[in-house]
Design brief:
Elements lengths: L5 H7 L2 H13 L28 E8 L4 H4 L4 E6 L12 H4 L5 E2 L2 H13 L5 E4 L5 H13 L6 E5 L5 H6 L6 E5 L5 H8 L4 H16 L3 E2 L5 E10 L8 H12 L4 E5 L20 H13 L4 E6 L2 E6 L8
Parallel strand pairs: 2-4, 4-5, 5-6, 6-8, 8-9, 9-10
Antiparallel strand pairs: 1-2, 1-3, 7-8, 10-11
Helix pairs in contact: 2-6, 5-6, 10-11
The structure holds iron/sulfur cluster (SF4).
Length: about 325
């Protein structure tokens, strides 16, 4: 019997009910993410992420621009949650992730979005920046699963996570799509107001991998379970590619899928920092590719002149 989507088993054995109860209780003194604001979100108090009891959803739609095994031919059923627990100076989605564009949404409405996306033929439900709304998402997931939701769940996160909270998602999430943004605490504070991002991020990624292991794909090439790590290359190696690739190689797996992103642009308030107020150059991107090679990482995608290019095996060459 296939072991995905995992949440169906958790629905059957009532684990999902327990997780909903456990996570809602965390909202009373909110410690869902490393910010630990301790506000009572059940009373609609708001902390750093500016979301009270009801999630705010900016949009939901089939998305064709994710990595190929996430989007597949029919699109990834993406739900964009507004606000975020990071404050990246260069955020490209700042209208909703920092300014909060979107609509307050009940768990009932959210479950309806999930079912609509499945009906549209999407390969999966892709929760973008979900952590600050995780209890409400679990409640919506239960409602949707009871009405027939049966496609894999993608947890698409900036990676500023408490490992203990990720542990709660064991048995729920099929695919983790996580950023590894910084290896240096000073940079995560300066550019994303995120103290100790590297430690929280690395420990959480270990937990993600423990849960889902090596990626598995269907005959259609679409991912059914696994971990994909996104690494956005920033100017002047502010992202710490060498340390991050070394961590992945030594502490996760050489086979894990890595998406090495070159699309950085100085959006939002990046102009305030001279060093990030430009795009990356070819040398900076090539240096990040060299780190993949240096640590023997075997799977993923790099950007070349043809677009997103799949690499498999070591000694990755870029077609520039
Ligand atoms: S989820 Fe929001 S309120 Fe809760 S700890 Fe994180 S930032 Fe603070």
């Amino acid at each position: 019997m296939q072991d995905y989507p995992k949440y169906l088993k958790s629905l059957r054995n009532s684990d999902l009910d327990k997780k909903i109860e456990e996570t809602y209780s965390l909202l009373k003194n909110c410690q869902i993410c490393p910010r630990k604001c301790r506000v009572n979100r059940l009373n609609n108090e708001k902390g750093f992420c500016k979301v009270g009891l009801k999630p705010i959803v900016c949009s939901y739609m089939p998305h064709h621009g994710e990595e190929p095994p996430i989007s597949g031919a029919k699109g990834s059923g993406t739900i964009f949650f507004s606000y975020c627990n990071l404050r990246c100076a260069y955020c490209q989605n700042y209208q909703f992730s920092q300014k909060g564009e979107g609509q307050e949404t009940s768990p009932e409405e959210l479950s309806g979005f999930m079912l609509s996306l499945q009906k549209m033929g999407c390969h999966n439900i892709n929760l973008v920046t979900p952590t600050h709304c995780m209890p409400q998402i679990l409640k919506a997931l239960k409602m949707a699963a009871e009405k027939g939701l049966n496609i894999p769940l993608v947890y698409n996160t900036s990676g500023y996570e408490l490992p203990g909270i990720i542990r709660i998602l064991d048995g729920i999430v099929d695919i983790y799509l996580t950023d590894m943004r910084y290896a240096d605490n000073k940079n995560s504070i300066k550019y994303s107001q995120a103290p100790e991002y590297p430690d929280y991020n690395q420990e959480s990624v270990k937990e993600m991998y423990r849960q889902v292991g090596e990626s598995q794909f269907g005959d259609d090439g679409v991912i059914k379970k696994g971990l994909i790590i996104r690494h956005l290359v920033l100017p002047q190696d502010i992202c710490g590619s060498d340390k991050i690739m070394r961590f992945i190689s030594e502490k996760i797996s050489k086979k894990v899928y890595i998406s090495l992103m070159s699309q950085y642009q100085p959006y939002y308030q990046a102009y305030k920092y001279k060093e990030i107020s430009r795009r990356i150059n070819k040398t900076e991107y090539q240096n990040a590719i060299d780190c993949l090679n240096k640590y023997g990482l075997e799977n993923g995608w790099i950007q070349d002149s043809q677009g997103l290019e799949r690499f498999a095996g070591v000694n990755i060459k870029r077609n520039v």
